[in-house]
Amino acid sequence: MESKWLEDFLVLAAQRHFGRAADIRNVTQSALSRRIKLLENWLGAPLIDRQTQPVTLTAAGAKFLPRAEELMALTTLAREEARPPLASEHDMMTVCMMSTLSITTFPRLVAQLEEKGEHFRFRFVNASTTLPDTLDVLRSGAVDFLLTYAHPNVTALQSLHDLPHITLGSERCIPVSVPDQAGKPRFDLRQTQMPVDYLSYQNNSFFASALPDVISGGRFTLRTVYENALSAALLAAARVGLGVAWIPEALLGDDLTSGRLVRAADPAFDLLVEIRLYQSTPRKSRSKARFWRNVSQLAPQPHSILE
């Protein structure tokens, strides 16, 4: 297997269109399709349903997506560790973050800083799939910053009470389902007669701790058919019609406006979470102090970055 096959697959899973994915990967559409086929042959399972428009992941593709993300992260980390440093440790900042925020919030934050003429160097450290382990990484000083969701029900975050943080904004986590032929949710939380197939967050992940109060407020019955710690993996499973899942709104992209997915419940069952940037025990570094100062200026009030 070649690493570029994984990169092709991850871009195609995000774009759901061979043409757009090929443009991003700077290859022809036929070359991209051929490399995806090589990956499928290597795995021994089809990953992409090419009969749908836009293309969707098969059940095997949805299961492989988080593994592909992990493999690419490990490959990138190994490459970075093997390379000689391009900058001093004082110039390079290490950031740990939840996978969803690495796709949605962090790139937008860096883009806003660069629009101000501020440029920084970052080294990413993958967040663990369990929240307590992720928090331990920050407290140990192994990373400089942690970008995370926050919610009162997630008591593990209380262990960071003595560390400085900036609230970057808030986000809704929305229960979604593929529509039926009438445009209604196939997995409808408004009905109470039958159990609803549920795509669940794994124990010790952030949303596994944050969601129970919202879920317990409904009269519906959930039947867990799939568990994963990653929102992107649950979204892929929801897109192919495996069940209902609570997904961060920024990750949904145009799924709701295009009708590929629909709300499975009233907005009262949305989960509202904060997005926070935590700093580990401060170290003497001008670049880190400048980064913190600039982010603070971008977010003088909650929601200012995400509005």
Automatic annotation (TrEMBL):
Keywords: DNA-binding, Plasmid, Transcription, Transcription regulation
Domain of life: Bacteria
Keyword DNA repair: no
InterPro entries: LysR_HTH_N (IPR000847), LysR_subst-bd (IPR005119), WH-like_DNA-bd_sf (IPR036388), WH_DNA-bd_sf (IPR036390)
Listed Gene3D superfamilies: Periplasmic binding protein-like II, Winged helix-like DNA-binding domain superfamily/Winged helix DNA-binding domain
Pfam families: HTH_1 (PF00126), LysR_substrate (PF03466)
Family: Belongs to the LysR transcriptional regulatory family.
Protein name: LysR family transcriptional regulator
Organism: Ketogulonicigenium robustum
